[in-house]
Amino acid sequence: MNAFEGDEAAAIRADGLVKKFKGKTALAGVDLTARTGTVLGVLGPNGSGKTTTVRILSTLLHPDEGRATVGGYDVVRQPHQVRRLIGLTGQYAAVDDELSGTQNLLLIARLLGYTRPGARRRAAELLERFALSDAADRPVKTYSGGMRRRLDLAASLVGRPSLLYLDEPTTGLDPHSRNEMWDVVRGLLDDGVTVLLTTQYLEEADQLTDDIVVLDHGKVISRGSPDQLKARAGTQVLQVQPVEPGELDRVVGIVELVSGSEARTSSSTASAAVTDPAVLPEVVRRLDDQGISVAELTLRKPSLDEVFLALTGHPADDVPSDTTAPAFERTHG
Amino acid sequence: MPVMFVGLFVFVFGNAIEGGGWQVYRDFIIPGITAQSVIFATMGTGITLNTDIEKGIFDRFRSLPVARSAPLIGAILGDMVRYLLTVMMVLIVGFAIGFRPEGGVTSIIAATAVVMLFAFGLCWLSAFAGLLLRTPMAVQTFGSIWMFPLTFASSTFVNPDDMPSWMAAFAAVNPVTHVVDAMRGLLMGGPVAGPLLWTVVWTAGLTAVFFPLATRAYKRRS
User: Are B183 and B34 within 8 A, CB to CB?
Assistant: First the structure.
């Protein structure tokens, strides 16, 4: 899909964004389009340029090259108009620990020009919606991680933005809180909000987004719908480990024959991308026919690393580690 | 903190230093502790700014349709209120242990204005450090390095005449000496014009240098 297709309905359009920090290239020409009323997922490992992209599109950073428009306004030349449209939920819950949930939201509402009673109403409404009413008057430092993220999201919605940036909204959350967050994001779509969501999780992108852009080293390496992406990367991964390591070659032969894709081997385990769930019984039958007993046989969702391998031919592990990458982007931003 | 300082200095040193008993030292040191407490409070400005930026709170504010400089100005104004509360706290404790300025209420207001003026100049230095350094810890360390010599090698706790000559020379040009002397002059009587002039000069200088530096660092950092 070309970045400029469906131009009329584009809520966000970025064209050739380049950003360097002290000579290190964070973005090397990123094009993307988010259609109005849809969720655009930006998928990539740490250090791939997700946060930098969000910071440019939310007017916090100027690109070195390229341009971007949000709701038709240029992010560099018309930042004030852009800020009227957007809400930003960053990677770290940007709420004040000392204040209560209500006070945090009142602060934002008053800044945005709500009257005192109007601000109170809006705060109560949002707390209710995000299931925080019971904790409304408690200081935020007593909140759980999931509650903080929900409050942070509520804070970005105070001004009723028509466009919302969610930068890794579920990173570091337990599975239960992650599911809650997903429900919240789905709820936003019912309001007609356009969402740009960054994530490291393929499953999250699959669950929530309409279009996905895959970033790697500051470049878009793939784009399309979740289904298209999965078709390219395989929906699932079949993994087989024989009891006898000597039988691995025969296992690889069976796996490749049945799945029709190239198998990888690592520590006496063969794995291959599969799209058709019917391969599982077929593989079991053939293993049985040849008298190979298996120690492990699983069918699972591919990890981001496997998607990257399928899309780029190289694994996504040669990037800065978890802690250094975002810190670098933030501090030198 | 200020409450503890008043208690400790007045009663620990008060009996040891002055011949005239702790009451004399109390009257000498209350203006000094007021200034010292406010100067230490300015360190909080840099630390808070640093923490808030690291946590992304400034990203949130700057993605709102409000003036770009508003979060910084707002933080400084909020801190000025905090400094004022610090002044009032020290003075209330002073009152509780019998401090009665000769100049009355007018002198209290004037002395408060002097120390607040200086704090305004100094908070830009603190803000600059907070925006420039990477971690709150670094800001704190940096603050302590210059705050201890500034407050101790001055007329805050003892008369600089009793210091070794090299330190007395430092104390004579130390802005904290001028601030404290101006406050003392206003509250307890004594020369005011000279120290007041120097306080204004120092404040103007600090603001002229560090206000532009801080706003520039703010634009870059956030």
Answer: yes
